[in-house]
Structures are given as structure tokens and as C-alpha cells.
Amino acid sequence: MSRIKALFSKCAGFSGGLISGNAELPQLLILGLDKSGKTTLLYRLKIGSGWGDIVEDMKRMRTPDSDGKVEDPGYHYEELGRSFSCGVWEVPGTEAMRPVWKLFYQSIKIHCVVFVVDATENEQRINLAKRHLHVLMNEAELRNACFCVIINQRADSAGNNVYDEKEDVLKYKLGLHDLHPSVEWRTRHFVINILDIKGESDKDWLGVMSFAKDVLTDSKGFALKL
Ligand SMILES: Nc1nc2c(ncn2[C@@H]2O[C@H](COP(=O)(O)OP(=O)(O)O)[C@@H](O)[C@H]2O)c(=O)[nH]1
Ligand SMILES: [Mg+2]
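# guanosine-5'-diphosphate complex -> structure
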């Protein structure tokens, strides 16, 4: 871990624990297990559906090259400014990277965690996602942060949604029905097919940002003037 920390401090954007970029902007941190759809979400927001082959490209990024190395193991940072101006960090959710998540929210003042869960995951992975989510919700550095849990709805080959939004079993499996009041008011979950997001003005994303804005401007939390 200390080696990662040392490496990390050398990374662009981490100067003495202060954030890079625009310190005035609310900062969002996209987290979740590997392959839940985080990078796809970030680039759907940033580029929209103009990145036509994103599914194939993301697969290619995961394919080891002849040296056995996998491309794109790092984090991404983008700024959004159309519907809701913010800085967005997106960090991998592989086993090796999960312990590194805390370096981000310890180094950067995070206003909103966007936690992505793939709706098609098995029980074991959902439990793992739940454990990580609840650890985050109890972190001192995130005690004012808004939590937007995105259940990544997927469509099957016939175009039908695989997740029953009405039944919404993941609400219970992720323990979102029974949150402590100090967390409950700043947490909401959304069922969204990330692949369908057509940029930051997409109505599904506007719904997420509208909730985040309410939380971030609330006097119980950051009381930001947005
Ligand atoms: N069908 C479908 N595939 C998706 C969706 N979101 C992500 N994917 C694919 O799932 C894989 C994992 O997505 P990625 O964004 O790389 O996940 P990350 O590890 O959380 O960053 C990639 O192959 C994506 O193209 C989705 O909403 N629908
Ligand atoms: Mg990724």
C-alpha cells in the first residue's frame, strides 16, 4: 500500500493532497466493482452515443497484450459542464484497486459518490458490492457526501430489460431499504441502462444530478451554493 501511495503522489493531479483541476467544482467519484459499467458511464456522459463501438472498445481495453499487460488500469478524470458542472473521477474496481479507493477520497474533497452495480451480477458479487458500498457510507471523509447508486440495467439480445424495476430486489440486497437516517437522506438509487445514456443532458442523468444538487445544497450537508 505504501508503494501505491508513493506512486500515487507522483501522479498528475495529486499535489500534496490537494485536488488538481478546478477546486471550485463539486467533485464526483464513480466507484463500483470491476465491469459494472463505470468507464462506460463516464464516457457516455462525456461523449454521448457518438462513441459507437464503446462495448467493443472496452472489451479490447481489457484484453491482455502479448506481454500479458492489460491496458487502461488507471483512473480517469473528466469535467462536465452542461447540465451540472462537476469534476468526475472514475477509479477501477478490480480487487487490487479497491484498497486504493480511499486514497482518492482522502486526497480529494468528494461531494458525491456514484456507485455503479451491474444488475446481472450473482449473489456473491452483489454481497461484495454491498459490503464496499456500506464501508464507503461510513467513511468519515464521505459523511456529507451524496450517494447515487446506479443499478446498471442491461437489455438482453431481444432488447428486453433484464432487471425488474418494479420488484427492485437489489434495493433490499444492497441494504438500501434500511439505512441509518444520517445516510438515508443523502442516498438514492436509480435503475439506468448506462449504455443508453446519450450525454450529460440525458434525462436519466438529469434525474441523478437533480437529486445530487438537492443534497449538496442542503444545510444538513455541504450547503453548497450551486
Ligand atoms: N450490454 C451492456 N453492456 C455494458 C453496459 N455497461 C457496460 N457494458 C459493458 O460491460 C463491460 C464493463 O464495462 P466497463 O465500463 O468497462 O466497466 P468498469 O470496469 O466498471 O469500468 C464492458 O464490456 C462494457 O462495454 C450496459 O449498460 N449494457
Ligand atoms: Mg473501467
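# post-check
Helices lie at 2-10, 38-47, 54-62, 101-107, 123-137, 169-173, 181-184, 203-217.
DSSP finds eight helices and eight strands in the chain.
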